């Protein structure tokens, strides 16, 4: 059972940002996001200021920028959407590199890209400097409802178990000569996903049994 | 004789889908005993275990733990008295740290503060895992997780420890370490296992469950050397293992 150390998004370190209380970091991230989202989309100077602020924070965290940049791939679907916007939006047209695109669409796409990137980078910085466990304690201190925090705690705990199971199923599939190269193979992937779902559901029941066996009555102690 | 720790009488149970798993099981376990529960797959061992702390309710017959009947009214006390260690430690360890996991049971019993800390540390010391108290369970090796799973139950100071396949998936060294730990505990043990050498090593007495009834109950050595009984209930010794020549542990 090769469980790695720390979480995949976490970058081990001892900077002031790493040591800052998790609930403050969550609040700071939330405040930053609200401000970024609320900024008018043509206030490019303001966005530049946010980017500089974020760069300073990342610098202070001593997390290598490349480490964060690699993980911004989660933004990809939004990037695709942002790039499509100028082509699908209507209204007055404008020329970019000899291609006619929608003026509104272009502005909206650029704004989406900027706001999205700022948000993703800020969130990744939080994830890189905060252990999942501390993050949960921070949310608890912020009085986030117990049930929500518990659901997140279970997710953190079982993420590795479920991905491990998924990985083993993949290895088992490939060991029997399977590879998902064309859509004809997708039904197999769908069935695997179904099996994984059922296994996780059954694990949930077994965990619940184990909790009941230690006197769980519906509320977490403390 | 004194009140048995575990007193199962005429226990029968059918699952809601109609499949009957137990047909009148009688089982008594006395204080300080270590008993192996043997039987082929599908014999009803897990079903029996889930009756011991009231997860399943008896269809007929009764279960009592140190004289206290397993009934809804005293489920909390029953679950303190009967500590079940499940087969997959990932099912048992669901909190973020070893400490929180071991504290879960006693905290549910209303224990707090210094006493809770004492219980947690004592339970972890009993399984030799006190150094790992602040680690997340999913960063431990499988053998370590199994030991922490035992500690989560020991922290409730149970009267009987019920282990479901304690040696499964362990490498030989972890298997031996767990045996040493189980032997060192001053607690009554009921151990469900397919690992017959392990049963012989740890449990002086064995009970064989087959087809939902107890078909044998006696000294582990006698059960394992009764070839006719073994064959009739799909029990087989591993290749090369003979209880007659197995040396007792010093």
Automatic annotation (TrEMBL), chain A:
GO cellular component terms, A-Z: ATP-binding cassette (ABC) transporter complex
Keyword entries, A-Z: Cell membrane, Membrane, Transmembrane, Transmembrane helix
Domain of life: Bacteria
Location(s), subcellular: Cell membrane
UniProt membrane topology term: Multi-pass membrane protein
InterPro entries documented for this protein: ABC/ECF_trnsptr_transmembrane (IPR003339), ECF_CbiQ (IPR012809), ECF_transporter_component (IPR051611)
GO biological process: cobalt ion transport
Transmembrane segment boundaries: 20-38, 44-61
Primary site of residence: membrane
Keyword Transmembrane helix: yes
NCBIfam families: ECF_T_CbiQ (TIGR02454)
This protein's name: Cobalt ECF transporter T component CbiQ
Organism expressing this protein natively: Nocardioides agri
From TrEMBL, chain B:
CDD domains in the cross-refs: ABC_cobalt_CbiO_domain1
Alphabetical list of SMART domains matching this protein: AAA
Keywords (A to Z) from UniProt: ATP-binding, Cell membrane, Membrane, Nucleotide-binding, Translocase, Transport
GO MF, one example: ATP binding
GO biological process: cobalt ion transport
Top-level taxon of origin: Bacteria
CC terms in the record's Gene Ontology section: ATP-binding cassette (ABC) transporter complex
Keyword Membrane: yes
Boundaries of every ABC transporter domain copy: 6-236
InterPro entries from the UniProt entry: AAA+_ATPase, ABC_transporter-like_ATP-bd, ABC_transporter-like_CS, ABC_transpr_CbiO/EcfA_su, Co_trans_ATP-bd, ECF_ABC_transporter_ATP-bd, P-loop_NTPase
Keyword field contains ATP-binding: yes
SUPFAM superfamilies membership: P-loop containing nucleoside triphosphate hydrolases
Annotated family: Belongs to the ABC transporter superfamily.
Function: Part of an ABC transporter complex. Responsible for energy coupling to the transport system. Probably part of an ABC transporter complex. Responsible for energy coupling to the transport system.
Name of the featured protein: ABC transporter ATP-binding protein
Organism expressing this protein natively: Nocardioides agri
